[in-house]
Design brief:
Cofactor: Zn(2+)
GO molecular function: metalloendopeptidase activity
Number of domains: 2
Number of strands: 6
Main location: membrane
Distance between the termini: 26 Å
Radius of gyration: 23 Å
Number of helices: 6
InterPro entries: PDZ_sf, Pept_M50_Zn, Peptidase_M50
Protein name: Peptidase M50 domain-containing protein
């Protein structure tokens, strides 16, 4: 990166700060490749922070540095330790998913962060190209997220059935079929709306 809007770029973080401070603005980027300089127009997207502010982003990063062998270490766990580590990581991912849902409900996270099948397929491909560890980690997080969503107290989901069972224990008798039918319609409407929103935001990202 040589310059942005004619202003010389000192280092990578200087470029990052320019992009973050220019959401939706068209920037004239000058870069050098193979000894030749080229100029292109670059328009950072908009990303909303929890504070309500917007920052620009382009989905690019600096190339990772190859660490010398002296700075690398390998961590291995035995069968028993591996189970403990797996349970700990699963708990962390579960809490992360629940917190993300909470923030979305109270408006701290924009609903545009919802992802559907298109984004999932794209991220799956990217993680697969990054290696087996990244791909398996993504599949694990995806499975945990779906599991948490499935346990939400919404009719038609498993969490909705658990809610009915809990109400049956408290009331001493099952929930009426009429009430369950109404709940089923509400649940279908909620899940259907969520799926349509996720697909809509997927298509918007493609465009």
């Amino acid at each position: 990166m040589v310059a942005v809007n004619g202003e010389p770029v000192d280092d990578w973080m200087h470029f990052v700060n320019i992009v973050r401070g220019s959401p939706g603005e068209t920037l004239q980027l000058t870069y050098e490749r193979d000894g030749e300089q080229e100029t292109v127009n670059l328009t950072p997207g908009r990303n909303s922070l929890e504070t309500g502010d917007e920052i620009g982003y382009i989905g690019a990063g600096a190339q990772q540095v190859e660490w010398p062998a002296a700075f690398q270490r390998e961590i291995r766990y035995g069968p028993v330790e591996a189970v403990g580590q797996a349970l700990s990581r699963t708990g962390e991912m579960t809490l992360l998913t629940i917190d993300a849902i909470r923030k979305m409900l109270v408006g701290l996270i924009s609903p545009s962060n919802l992802s559907g099948p298109i984004t999932i397929a794209q991220v799956s491909g990217d993680s697969a190209r990054a290696g087996v560890e990244a791909f398996v980690g993504f599949l694990a997080y995806l499975s945990i997220s779906l599991g948490v969503l499935n346990l939400l107290p919404i009719p038609v989901l498993d969490g909705g059935h658990l809610l009915y069972y809990f109400m049956e224990v408290v009331r001493g008798r099952p929930v009426s079929e009429k009430t369950q039918a109404v709940g089923l319609r509400i649940g279908l409407a909620m899940v259907g709306t969520l799926m349509l929103m996720a697909l809509y935001f997927d298509l918007m990202r493609l465009w």
